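Re: beginner question about structure tokens

> Can someone show what the tokenized structure looks like for a real chain? I only ever see the sequence side.

Sure, here's an example I had lying around. Input first:
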Amino acid sequence: MSTETAWVATRIKRDQIDKYLERGRDYIQDDRVWDEIKRAPEPSADRVREILAKSLEVKTLAPGELAELIRVKDPAMLEEMRETALRIKLKVYDDRIVTFAPLYMGNYCVNNCVYCGFKRENLTQKRRVLSMDEIRRETESLAGRIGHKRIIAVYGEHPLTGIDYITESMRTIYDVKVPTKHGYGNIRRINVNAAPMSTEELKHLHEVGLGTFQVFQETYHHETYAKLHPKGTLKSDYQWRAYAMHRALEPETGIDDVGIGVLFGLYDWRFEVMSLLHHAIDLEAKMGIGPHTVSFPRLEPALNASYVTESPYRVSDEDFLKIIMLIRLAIPYTGMIVTARETAEIRRKAIYHGTTQMDASTRLGIGSYSEDGGRQEVERQQFILGDTRSLDELVRDFAKDGFITSFCTAGYRCGRTGKCIMELLRSGKEGKFCKLNAVLTFQEWLDDFATPETRELGMKVMEREIGEIRDRNPRGFQVFYGFLERVRKGERDLFL
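And the corresponding structure tokens:
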């Protein structure tokens, strides 16, 4: 038996699946989901507004309520829904857009997903796993040249990038501190996108400073999932993946922030949106915590992955924006991530449909932040990017539209996570903390990394934000302003 085969044979822990099942079934019952969609009436305007009022109270919608919103076709009502989604985003997350960068650690994989450029049988893919020295150089570029404070570390499912490698790489990233113009740059939060893990492995992630743990189901439709993830591969086990977030939220792991998502374009988007809600509801019911984030990747071209062009379920731009809006209304407390898979135009529109997080200066090739000067190489990437703007350009564009870029990671280190942050988000109180820390970290970034044009526009945003803080919280303003002055003098990583 090869090392790889032996490793694969030990991965799935059946007892860590069965405990969550109800009468042997998982939380997605395909017929029931389709029945909810088909039974839903096209709602009246009054009924739509009734549902929107519930969303505005930051309450999770019932599946039937979401199904009704999916049925809305009237342009005026759709616009009212979009406006409500934006109101919820501003109520819960204020006018902040959180930025991050993905860091791909390796592209070896034991799976053979038909839509993925990293699939095992793709012999054209240039395979590589970063060494710790290479990870250090990548981090130096991200934190010291670009100015990122948080990353999503992405790992393939392979023994070369197993739990020991993941924890060592996280320690390496956190150890990097790079001098900048006035202070220093470092990565303060590492989120992890990886294959499903056991509770024992997840505990190790928490011990080395995990932020959010992400696992995307890809598609919740059982038949489609089986077709796209060939039998005999690790990923073919639907339920091991479907309960990855439940395992992560078990008390013994220490983890309390998880992220879910769907690869839109693999199956009918209406089914997937309903299933995301069912996933969130099941997490809330069984684990007491819903998803900290929902991600919205859309099927994009990949090397030797013909399914991308063959799929009958490709999602139009109009439907994609509707999907984002519907999830903001259905799971109003959650953070929402739209990545650089999408074009700059689509991502800008996505903000006004409820999006709260975006990546920038994104590179997908293994080692590409420090080596290739920004070139896209299909032989090294999982898919092709749609938005190649630098972080500076993104910050400038946000500022032009009146949004502040947040580099804040304070909440995670102050204990505002898990059930605590859920309560704060539902009440609208978290946005007040985040406003303060967004301003502090934005000042950091403007001083250390911004080009002159971006700094000028950013400082105008700063003036407005400082004025809002003064008006909203006059008693606490002096404390906040004292911290801001310390940042301007070169202190870094201050938070409230």
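Each token stands for a local structural state, so reading them left to right follows the chain. The chain has two domains: 3-25+86-423, 430-488.
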